[in-house]
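Severity: low
Component: inverse-folding endpoint
Summary: output formatting inconsistent between runs
Steps to reproduce: submit the following structure tokens with default settings.
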């Protein structure tokens, strides 16, 4: 379980680093669609981590990149 959590945390950080936080303001539907997909993947990864009792670290990472 611990290794899975580490992999998920690394994956989450990469997703957060590369996410377009302003996708919902885009006039281009392609950017909006890609941003929405990224957002859904971030939420799914966070949910997995929360279910594995990593909620505090998950929130800290999310807050670090979502300014």
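Observed output (run 2 of 3):
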């Amino acid at each position: 379980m611990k290794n899975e959590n580490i992999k998920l945390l690394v994956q989450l950080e990469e997703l957060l680093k590369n996410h377009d936080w302003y996708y919902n303001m885009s006039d281009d539907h392609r950017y909006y669609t890609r941003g929405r997909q990224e957002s859904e993947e971030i939420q799914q990864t966070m949910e997995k981590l929360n279910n594995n009792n990593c909620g505090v670290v998950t929130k800290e990472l999310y807050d670090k990149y979502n300014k």
